Amino acid sequence: MDVIVFTNGCFDLIHPGHIDLLDQARQLGTRLIVGINSDESVRRIKGNGRPFLSAEDRKAVLLGLRSVDEVIVFDEPTPDKLIKEIRPDVLVKGGDWKTGEIIGSDSVLRNGGKVYSLPLKVGYSSSGIVERIRSVDKEAGLVSEAANSEDLIGRSLSQHIDVLQKVVHSQSAIVRECAELILAAITSGNKILVCGNGGSAADAQHLAAEFVGRYETERRGIPAIALTTDTSALTAISNDYGFERVFARQVEALAQEGDCLIAISTSGDSPNVISAVMAARKKKCSVIGMTGARGKKLASLSDVCIMVPSERTARIQEAHITLAHIICEIIDSKFEHGTL
C-alpha cells in the first residue's frame, strides 16, 4: 500500500539542507511528492529578483534527486488546494515551521494523516546563501552611508524615497490586489480586522483608524471595522492564553467567513501574528500580509502580501502607513466613480 508524503517550497537554490529534509520526508512513506511555487508565486514570497531558476529548472533539479518521485508546480499563494487534491498520508515541512502553521495540516489530520515539522540541517538556508552572495554590495553601501553620516536628515529622507520608489516598481500590482480584497469584504457587509505586534502595533492602530474614519459612516453604509492589536488592555487575555495566542483568540471571537484580516509584521515571522493568520484561514477569511524583505513566512501564508523591499524597521513601517493611505485612495476612487 502506497503511503504518499507531501512537502512544498520554492526550492530556488538547492543546498544540502534541502536534500537532507527531502531524504527525511521520503523515509516517512513510499512516495514523495514535492509542490513548488510557480515563478510568479516565488516573486510574491521572496520579492523581485527571485526566483533565480525558473519553475521548470527547479523541477528538473528536484526530479534528479533519488528521494523525489514527483514534482508539481502550483500558482496559488499556498499549496492548500493542491494538498486537498492529492490527499497525502503524510505532510512535511522544515523545523522552522510549527505543525500548527503548516498549510494543509487541518485537512491531512482530518483525513487520518500525519503532519511533521522535521529538524533542519544546521548551517544551511537559501536566504543565507543569497546574503553571502550579496554581501560585497551591502558592505560597499555601508561604507558609503558612513561617509555621509553628517547629513542624517538627508540620508533618512533619501532612504525613505528609495524604498518607496522600489515599492512602486515591485508592489504596485499587489497593492491593487489588497484594495480589491478589502473592497470585497466591506461591500459584502464584512469586517476588516487588523493586527500588528510590537512596533507594528502602531501601524495596525493607524490602519484601523484610517479605515474607520473613512468608511464607518452612514454615507458609506459600511459596518464597523474591528481592530486587533496588542495594547495593555489585552494583558488578561495574554496571561490566560499565552502571548502568542492573543491575536488568534480575538480572530476566533470576532471573525466570520468573508472578513479580511490585515496582518502586519516587519519580520514576517511574529508567532502572535502568524497564529492570527492561521485562525483567520480556518474562519475562511481573506488574509493580507504586510511585511519587509525577509517576511517570507507571512507572505507564504497570505492570500496577497505587500513586502516592503527593506530590512530596516523604520523604513518598513513608514512604507506600510503610506501604502495604507494609497489603498484607501484606490477604494475611494471606486466609490466616487461608481465602479463597485
Can you give keywords for this protein?
340 residues, alpha/beta, Rossmann fold, 2 domains, 5-stranded parallel β-sheet, 4-stranded parallel β-sheet, 13 helices, 9 strands, 51% helix, globular
Describe this structure in words.
The chain folds into two domains: 123 residues, 3-Layer(aba) Sandwich (Rossmann fold), CATH 3.40.50.620; 185 residues, Glucose-6-phosphate isomerase like protein, domain 1 (Rossmann fold), CATH 3.40.50.10490. It is α/β, with parallel strands linked by helices and 340 residues long. The protein is globular, with a radius of gyration of 21 Å. The protein contains 13 helices and nine strands.
Following the backbone from N to C, one meets helices and strands in this order, namely EHEHHEHEHEHHEHHHEHEHEH
What fold name stands as the CATH topology of the largest domain? Answer: Rossmann fold
What share of the residues lie within helices? Answer: 40-55%
Unreliable segments (pLDDT under 50, ≥5 consecutive)? 142-147, 230-241
Strand order of the largest sheet: 3-2-1-4-5
CATH H level, superfamily name of the largest domain: Glucose-6-phosphate isomerase like protein, domain 1
Give the strand tally: 9
Question: What is the radius of gyration computed over CA atoms, rounded to a whole number of angstroms?
Answer: 21 Å
The CATH C-level name of the largest domain is Alpha Beta
Task: Estimate the mean pLDDT confidence.
Answer: 85
| Number of helical stretches of at least 4 residues | 13
The dominant shape is globular
Please tell me the total number of domains.
2
Distance between the termini: 53 Å
Structural class: alpha/beta
